[in-house]
Amino acid sequence: MNKKKMYNKPLAMVFPYLLPATVVHWKMKLLSVILLSIIPSVLQSRNIEGSVVDAEGQPFGFVNAVLYTNDSVYISGCVTDSSGYFRFQNLPDGSYILKISFLGYNDKFRDFNIDGNSIKLEPIVLTESTIELDAVTVTARRPVYQLEGGGLKVNVANSILQNETKPIDVLRKIPGMTLTQGELQAFGFGAPVIYINGKKAQSFDEVERLGVKDIQSVTLLTNPGAAYDASGSPVLLIVTKNKDNGLMFQLDGDIYKGNRINHTEGVNMSYQRDGLTLFGSYRFMDKQTESYENMISGIRSDTVWNYNSRENQYADDKKNSYQAGINYNLNPNHSLGMQYDGISKDGINEISGTSEATANNEPYENLDIQSKIDQHIKNHHLNLFYRGKWSENLAFNMYGDYVRNKLTREQHTNETNETGNIPNLVFITSRSDFDVYAIKGVFNYSMKDKGSVSFGGDYSFVKGNNTLDGENNTIENASSRNTESKRAAFVSYAFSSGKLDLIAGLRYESLLSKMHDFKKPSNNIDREYNNLFPSLSLNYITGNVSHSLNYSVSTTRPDFDILNTNVYYTNRFNYQIGNPSVKPAIWNQANYSLRYKFIYLNLIYANAKNYIGYNFYTDKENPSVVVTSYTNYGRYQRLAAALNLNYQFGFWEPTVSLYYLKPFFKMDYMGKPVAHDKPCYNIGWDNGFTLPKGFYLNAEYQYSSPSSYLMFELGATNVVNLRLQKPFLKDRLQITLYGNDLFNGNKVKMNGLINTISFDQREISDSRNFGVSVIFRFNNYKKTKEYNSAEDEMERLKVK
Fold this sequence. Notes:
The protein is mostly beta strands.
């Protein structure tokens, strides 16, 4: 095809040319067959359909819709789906009365006539009703949990979570989410990818800029569908409250003391007028932590090596993050916008310790180690979007992203032994520079009572250079380049019949990955992967019970810092190196969810091929040195269950969370397989107390049992948190006093066996702290949206 002509064609016609010609032919045929097979044939009939929304214009699910004749004879009833949609089919001509009702809301009635044609009603708005009884005001609440779109939706603004101080506290208390050693995790699935109003957050800083009072709802997708990148990561969808014309700003500050004093300050501002929205924010963080680690390790070979290392670590991280953007609604059907996000982070890590080595139980060498690591990160991200509704049935969204990530790491290590010999001085400088270009387009075609079809494609290109320079012969210098191009296309079909929701999708990805080692060409990698990723989601409502069954195939690709040969020096007996030969893992996952009133249950099975995990082995040239790297394991399986109970007893609202995770994994040690399958039991008990004078008290307990993770056996942890807050100035000012890990029970205990190496590690981190948080806000809510960006390439750069 002539490239000059290609520029003048609509994007829908250009997408096929993003894919290799040999692939497009069979892929397009396959997608066409799937479309024709999954779109149901629905006979023409006289139907009544409509939707229900709340006073803020948000979809109102699980509302009762009852249809009567004009003389009040009952005909049929249904419940709106999670998007507020309802429909009555195969009705004869005549006059009808529709009643819409929900506990705690005013009933709404609609009269209409059917005369040969189906009817689509305008959105029906339900407003809350308040009943006063002897000076006691009772206001009904919408359901906190809803199963929709293959995930669990939590109505934060209607739950006790709206009383949290920080967004991370909201997210970690979503059923199925936990906080593990300070990192947000979906239980059993790893770190989630987060979207804010449809736009992918490139770092957690974007989440931290949100105010808790800004959050309307959060949805957890453990099995994301075809529209999302097939990265295998769970997805958190955050929807914020709508905003009105005018100015909004928030000032917040947080100061707390562990072993050191830490503080964070931020300001968020936005201005909206006549379709134009301007917004910006700035945050500064100064975080200082201390920790102690004791590692006892051994090597069983011709010589029996044993090591006892003790380290005191001090880390000082300073981070500046900033954001600016503009959104403009050209008219009700077309909008576009631009957003810039930047991060500048400087970190210092100082290590002081000793390492004692023995050979065949005889003293070999005692080291005194002093190390300092300076790390500097610069990250720039530019996002452009367009959203358009081209007709009543057809919509198109387009997103473009550019990311520039630069990291410099300088390590200075001084090792001396007890004899006072000439010290071993190690000076290492490593650099990485990555550029990411991405574009994505999504079409959505509505067939009304026949469902809707979404289809589209995306393309991304990543180029990165890695260098490592050392000033002595302790490690080898390295220089490499990673390039990766991904072409993808997807189709998804959604159908709803009131009680049954179905979403079926298929995603195709073609990935070309290359690694060029300038120092050792024998390490060069050139691979191509072509994969299909199907997904299926079924939601069914029976009375007050909602069921959800989901299945998906996904992949986990190695992070870019794995796919190079750079060496990270620990001491003369240990170093870490990447592994460019690591392949993507393929996951098959199924889960069943149930919601009944205040009960939420989730059952999960996952199976991985070529699972990516740590690997430990001895250096070929020096068998006394332990090498930490990465590898693929043949198979990894796990079973998981989550049970969440939430109920309000007057001023007290407890939430009990029970998690169970059973891994199935074996690792060879001394030539024999060792099973690592000890299940993990996690218990959470969160208590919220609404007290007089606006005071709110929260007491939380978390327990995690001993368990297995890959070749490691983990010890138990206990965490107790306490928080007291009080609003002032009509809820514009909020002051919170808090204490985390009050009894210092979040300690790392770990031992492991792999190949000929054994580990036993103890770590005491700086997790106990006490602080005060102050938030002042001026908000105005009505309506605004932001949109999706490109997928997981930026996530794999590990920008935090």
